[in-house]
Amino acid sequence: MRYRSPTAHPKKDIMDFALSDEQKAIRDTARSFIRKEVMPLEQELLRRERAHQPGLTRDELRELQSRARKFGFWGLSTPQEYGGMDLPAVTQSLIWTEIGRTILPFRFGGEADNILYHANEQQRREYLLPTIEGDRISCFAITEPGAGSDAANIKLSARRDGDDWILNGEKTFITNGNDADFAIVVGVNDPERGVRGGGTTAFLVDRAMGWRSEFIQTMGEGGPASLVFEDVRVPGRNVLGEVGQGFELGMQWIGRGRYIIPSHGLGIAERALQMAIDHANTRETFGRPIATNQAIQWMIADSETELEAARWLVLRAAWTVDQGVDPRHSSSMAKLYGAGMINRVVDRVLQIHGGMGYTRELPIERWYRQVRLMRIYEGTDEMQRLIISRDLLRGYTTIGGHLG
Ligand SMILES: Cc1cc2nc3c(=O)[nH]c(=O)nc-3n(C[C@H](O)[C@H](O)[C@H](O)COP(=O)(O)OP(=O)(O)OC[C@H]3O[C@@H](n4cnc5c(N)ncnc54)[C@H](O)[C@@H]3O)c2cc1C
């Protein structure tokens, strides 16, 4: 540190922005694992993707995950009774930032969709435990061709037939939809009550029960799928949670990603910005490094400032989750600002790299395509703004009210 304030001395009542020793230790172990075990595969991933092959196979991902398990990383959010770490949200956020540093589509294993914990005893054995172990792949399906932001407009119908349910309709843009062997599907069982009035239910639907998926090409690597249900018969015992609870579970599922997505984005921004700094210091034009130009310096300064602002929004959102306080307002701000920040930073980093930034030799153009999604899924920018402004306009929260 080059600067030390003459008044800097420990005070008992100051606000503490420091991480605890335990948080730092877990973050550093995750960083070391990502650096030593995951990042060395990046060149191969880029090579495969240039050849239009899948970047990372499922077996390779599982192999990495089982190596991480030996390091102690298994089930970041999974309760300890299921063998997980059950980490506080702030620690999970720090780890997701470390994961964001690698371009590999890596995540630690031992996780299941948060709403699968509403499973009954039999569903635990059939769906929850094998998903945690990585033996089964799930997907979560609420979006439909006619209902994305307006999720309350879903139409997939769930009709009772004796003890069973018959599902008809289509879901779209479902992550893992082409690989999953079961889907958590939200359908409308009681149109009279409506989606918000308790007229929807979530079902655990095996692919073997008859739904089919169609891959959707996107600007990112990998891609979601449409799921088509034509008279798919689902046994009554496959209702997840209660009949009528579907929309509520759907909102719970979506809520979790709101601080995870920007946590991941922070890691991408950190790594990309460091690449830009290194490049600016070494690339010479007109006989001097491009870092000597104010145009480049300002891009670096703006990126660092926005990254830091996003970091505190994200950590506060995660902290709010840990406090057991309603995290929706702070999570929406973290997702809105964090997703915008990462898009702006990657754009500047690409600009600083000039033509090389545009090539597939470097990961930058890949990030450029990948991070665009962060402004769309699990609630678009506009939906986050709707939530933030509604909370203020209706008086659910006050400006700066969280400071007490
Ligand atoms: C790669 C990918 C993966 C996804 N994974 C999943 C998944 O696993 N499961 C799942 O269920 N869904 C998933 N989704 C769906 C995703 O959540 C939706 O795409 C998203 O919620 C937006 O819905 P939409 O695409 O129908 O856009 P629309 O709702 O049609 O919105 C179009 C535009 O209008 C804006 N808009 C809409 N209403 C308003 C308003 N009232 N005021 C101002 N602006 C408005 C939106 O913000 C957007 O800019 C995924 C999507 C993608 C692209």
From TrEMBL:
Residues 139-231 form the Acyl-CoA oxidase/dehydrogenase middle domain. SUPFAM superfamilies: Acyl-CoA dehydrogenase C-terminal domain-like (SSF47203), Acyl-CoA dehydrogenase NM domain-like (SSF56645). Keywords: FAD, Flavoprotein, Oxidoreductase. It comes from the Bacteria. Its cofactor is FAD. Residues 20-135 form the Acyl-CoA dehydrogenase/oxidase N-terminal domain. Gene3D superfamilies: Acyl-CoA dehydrogenase/oxidase, N-terminal domain, Butyryl-CoA Dehydrogenase, subunit A, domain 2, Butyryl-CoA Dehydrogenase, subunit A, domain 3. Pfam families: Acyl-CoA_dh_1, Acyl-CoA_dh_M, Acyl-CoA_dh_N. Signal peptide: none annotated. Residues 244-392 form the Acyl-CoA dehydrogenase/oxidase C-terminal domain. Belongs to the acyl-CoA dehydrogenase family. This is Acyl-CoA dehydrogenase family protein.
